[in-house]
């Protein structure tokens, strides 16, 4: 219920909520090299994250490997990471929901860059 004379409509509230939710899901383009000796972050250039994953590209094992590796390396719950597009390709779109992680997009990218420098 709005106060008398208030100019905020239900539609405006819905729009602002929708925008907030969309901003909380970060999409990252990922290039995956499966069946590697060990899992590691190779590079993060031109908005593409390049990963080496030790799991083979059979029955979705490499996709699970991507989720588990990013979860461990970036300190984000596995349930908040999803392979959005490219589940059968080396080029994937990974979606990370940061809404319940209490981090910003900038902090997420900072975590990725810190792992590159180690």
Question: What is the topological layout?
Answer:
Blueprint: H1 10-24, E1 25-33, E2 40-45, E3 48-52, H2 61-74, E4 81-85, E5 91-97, H3 105-116
Average pLDDT: 85
Taken from the alpha-carbon principal axes, the silhouette is globular
Radius of gyration, in Å, reads: 18 Å
* Lateral arrangement of strands in the main beta sheet: 2-3-1-5-4
Provide the succession of SSEs: HEEEHEEH
Largest sheet: 5 strands, mixed
- Per DSSP E runs of 2 or more residues, the count of β-strands stands at 5
Strand content: 25-35%
Instruction: Flag low-confidence runs.
Output: 9-20
Overall structural class, as computed from helix and strand content, comes to alpha+beta
Ends apart, CA distance between termini: 52 Å
Count up the helices.
3
Helix content estimate = 25-40%
Question: How does this structure look, described?
Answer:
The longest helix is centred in the first third of the chain and has 15 residues. With 118 residues, the protein is an alpha+beta fold. A hairpin with a 5-residue loop joins strand 4 and strand 5. Strands 2-3-1-5-4 form a 5-stranded mixed sheet. About 10% of the residues have low confidence.
Concise summary:
With 118 residues, the protein is of the alpha+beta class. The protein has helices at residues 10-24, 61-74, 105-116; strands at residues 25-33, 40-45, 48-52, 81-85, 91-97.
Summarize this structure as a short list of keywords or feature phrases:
118 residues; alpha+beta; 35% helix
